[in-house]
Write a structure and sequence with these properties.
66% helix, 93 residues, 5 helices, mainly alpha, globular
Length: 93
Amino acid sequence: MSDDIRKIREERRWYERARFILDYHTTKGKDKSGKRNDKWKVSDTAQKLGLSIGAVSEAIHLARAIKTNPDLRLKTREEALTILRTIKNGDDE
């Protein structure tokens, strides 16, 4: 892992880190022409960033949710995950 990636991971807020992971995964998941490269998997991103597959998957999920609901950034990561689980389960709390 490069020093730049390590520095970005250490300095960012949880939602910035999630966005970085999503951007990294999306960029690496494209070929030179910009088309989706189906050979690039979450496990590849996890390995390159030194994270678990679960952590990368969760970060991608959070970053995508923040795109549609920016207010999630005002919560802690745990609160945002709880809100997303509630929405997914169809609960009205």
